[in-house]
Amino acid sequence: MKQPVAAILSLSLLLAVTGCGGGGDEGIETPPEPSGSGYSWSLPAGFPTPRESTDNPMSAAKVELGRHLFYDLRMSVNQTTACASCHLPERAFTDGRVTALGATGEAHPRNSMSLTNVVYNSTFNWANPLLKTLHAQALIPMFGEFPLELGWSDHEAEILDRFRHDAQYQPLFAAAYPGESDPFNADRVAKAVAAFQATLISGNSPYDQATFQGQHDALSPAARRGQELFFSERMECFHCHGGFNFSQSVSHAGTSITQADFFNNGLYNIGGVGDYPLDNRGLWEFTQKPADMGRFRPPTLRNVELTAPYMHDGSIATLEEVIDHYARGGRLISNGPYAGDGARNPYKSELIVSFSLTVGEKQDLIAFLHSLTDWNFICDSRFTDPFGNFPRPARCN
Ligand code: HEC
Ligand code: HEC
Q: Domains in the chain, ordered, with CATH?
């Protein structure tokens, strides 16, 4: 077992429950900020207004500070890794790896998630029911030790000093946190990075142009046929990947009941008793309830063409194979330590049904998934790296 569950639990509980930084960081006092920012979101047609976190009101200055921190290699203990290292713009803010690699080379058990439309998620990470704000989430890569991602633990003062003594950052922090004598603390860093991420809103794909902007020919005939399939009872995709964000677990200014759903989609069935690999058991890691084994949050499918490999552990390489997985109603692993028939996992969601589809239908479904790719989002100049560490995707130039 690569990481002790108790350790993940205690870290996650600590970070999530305390919201960390609420005065608890090495004695730093962080006064609450006023709420009600009046921030003007520039939203795509058909998109709801995001719900602002009451303890992290949006401001343009905070977003700008967050953009710098997000791309800054000095955010890691050994100055090799930024948030963007695992969340590359050209891959819709994923990294193309099967599973992520921390600053000091430690393997993460999970696949880096896309940051597309994260502001609308009701919970964060693949299966963490406790992480409810972007700034609480940011503290995990900063301080997490199992595995180490950026390595802030025991190096917090040293990392903060890099920003405190930097002539470029001094005015950025001052503008983002006006009136604070020393805004150079982990809470303020996490909140700025969160504010930047909240602006990563994608809603101008061919699908959106056809659906919300009246451009009926933005979708190819194949994509339109694929759309029918995606929203059909035969395939059931939309039950878990529905709504404007192609994910059920959304929260925004207009939602009163927050929906946070987790499902087992039949990837594993180790030993025929429903088990998932030890370091990736999903919601079970928080509840230890058998029924929560292998339950993960359905991620948004926006920009999914760019976010391979797929699933919480990157164990499916292509969209073709993802569709094969669902068509079979679960994955068969014939040998090795993970052998078992996922289609027979006792905890599998009843919405994972097997179905047959023709070669043409499969191509149509993929054409539809590709129609969710938003190059206006990927190339948006507001999201670019101010340091030039992460070059702009060739397609954007
Ligand atoms: C070492 C690679 C790595 C680094 C560095 C990293 N992340 Fe991540 N990120 C991941 C992985 C892996 C996940 C999924 C974690 C999980 O489910 O346990 C993730 C998940 C997330 C999510 C959740 C997305 C969602 O839809 O729920 C957000 C937000 C995020 N990261 C933001 C950040 C920020 C901000 C930073 C910098 C402070 C950062 N990440 C640094 C790998 C990384
Ligand atoms: C019962 C709910 C459910 C249904 C129905 C469902 N999915 Fe999923 N989907 C999930 C969950 C949960 C995950 C993440 C599972 C994991 O990582 O273990 C996922 C992951 C994915 C991914 C990988 C995304 C990524 O970023 O890694 C794709 C692509 C996908 N589903 C497409 C589809 C398609 C196409 C259909 C219909 C054929 C479908 N899903 C039906 C729940 C569902």
A: 5-28+55-202+376-392 (1.10.760.10), 206-370 (1.10.760.10)
